């Protein structure tokens, strides 16, 4: 298996996205859990919000995967630049790049 520089943290992001999607699907309707407790359906706007967050987590996880493979020397500069995630988060208008550089930090 390649990667490992960040201990495969991207996979945990994918798991979180999947868990959120599972909850959105499960809570479309009211029901009873495995312990016999009743629960309400989630409001539509909350389910939509959760679905959108899961979408974003998947994109971030893909980018984290690509960065991890780059830092693990599995990807070169050109390979990273050609990844779809590089395009998602490297907008010309710096829409996603909003980091204040502080010489005393690691950023």
Give the DSSP E fraction (strand runs of 2 or more residues). Answer: under 5%
Adjacency order of strands in the biggest sheet = 1-2
Major sheet characteristics: 2 strands, antiparallel
The coarse overall form would be elongated
Order of helices and strands: HEEHHH
**Poorly predicted tracts of residues:** 96-101
Helix segment tally:
4
Number of domains: 1
Number of strands: 2
Structural class: mainly alpha
N- to C-terminal separation? 29 Å
Mean pLDDT: 85
Fraction of residues in H or I helices? 40-55%
- Rg on CA atoms, Å: 18 Å
What does this structure look like?
- By secondary structure, this protein is mainly alpha-helical.
- It has one domain.
- Helices cover 52% and strands 4% of the residues.
Write the layout of secondary structure elements.
Layout: H1 9-26, E1 31-32, E2 38-39, H2 44-71, H3 77-81, H4 84-88
Antiparallel strand pairs: 1-2
Helix pairs in contact: 1-2
Task: Pick out its properties.
single chain, 107 residues, mainly alpha, two-stranded antiparallel sheet, 4 helices, 2 strands, 52% helix, elongated
Q: Could you give a short description of this structure?
A:
Helix content is 52%, strand content 4%.
């Amino acid at each position: 298996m390649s990667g490992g520089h960040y201990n495969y943290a991207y996979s945990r992001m994918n798991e979180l996205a999947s868990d959120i999607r599972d909850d959105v699907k499960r809570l479309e309707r009211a029901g009873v859990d495995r312990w016999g407790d009743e629960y309400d359906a989630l409001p539509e706007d909350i389910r939509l919000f959760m679905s959108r967050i899961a979408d974003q987590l998947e994109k971030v996880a893909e980018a984290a995967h690509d960065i991890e493979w780059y830092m693990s020397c599995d990807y070169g500069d050109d390979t990273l630049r050609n990844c779809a995630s590089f395009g998602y988060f490297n907008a010309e208008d710096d829409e996603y790049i909003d980091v204040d550089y502080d010489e005393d930090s690691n950023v």
